[in-house]
Amino acid sequence: MSHTATLIKFNLNGRPVTANVESYETILEVVRSRFGLYGARESCGQGLCGCCTLRVDGKVVTGCLLPAIKADGMAVDTIEHMEVDGKLDIVQECFIECAAFQCGFCTSGFLMMSRQLLNENSSPSEAQIRNYLSGNLCRCGAYPEIIQAVQLAAERIRIADNTQVLESTNAAE
């Protein structure tokens, strides 16, 4: 039995790329094996733990379940894309500051989900954070620190947003 690879084209972390993929390969396998982006990991292989979280066309997905062929023409972002020009995203900074990880295996998934949550809701309650992150598992039990890091990031994002509003208002006057 022979397999026929399919050429797909997609944007990976803002860059156009191509890859020959087999019908059975997931987008997670492709970004790891073809492009050396190892931040997202496969753990459960069933979309239940969140370690494989990627953003596809602006929405978080479980990379271990998405057939690579479905990513053709889409924008795929990995945890490596959160850092911009050597500067960590505010969520990453807060995770470090709050020691919101131990072994780090699940951290990229929590970071991707936390950033998505804060993009959608810059002022989530603790219950909303817990609910949003409920699909991510941390075997080390860093949940209190993770919640604390997301709350701190939300606070800093709100402060930054308020500062930008004040600066643009002052500039307009």
Automatic annotation (TrEMBL):
InterPro entries: 2Fe-2S-bd, 2Fe-2S-bd_dom_sf, 2Fe-2S_ferredoxin-like_sf, 2Fe-2S_ferredoxin-type, Beta-grasp_dom_sf, Diverse_Oxidoreductases. It comes from Pseudomonas petroselini. Keywords: 2Fe-2S, Iron, Iron-sulfur, Metal-binding, Oxidoreductase. Coiled coil: none annotated. Pfam families: Fer2 (PF00111), Fer2_2 (PF01799). CDD domains: fer2 (cd00207). It comes from the Bacteria. Residues 6-82 form the 2Fe-2S ferredoxin-type domain. This is (2Fe-2S)-binding protein. SUPFAM superfamilies: 2Fe-2S ferredoxin-like (SSF54292), CO dehydrogenase ISP C-domain like (SSF47741).
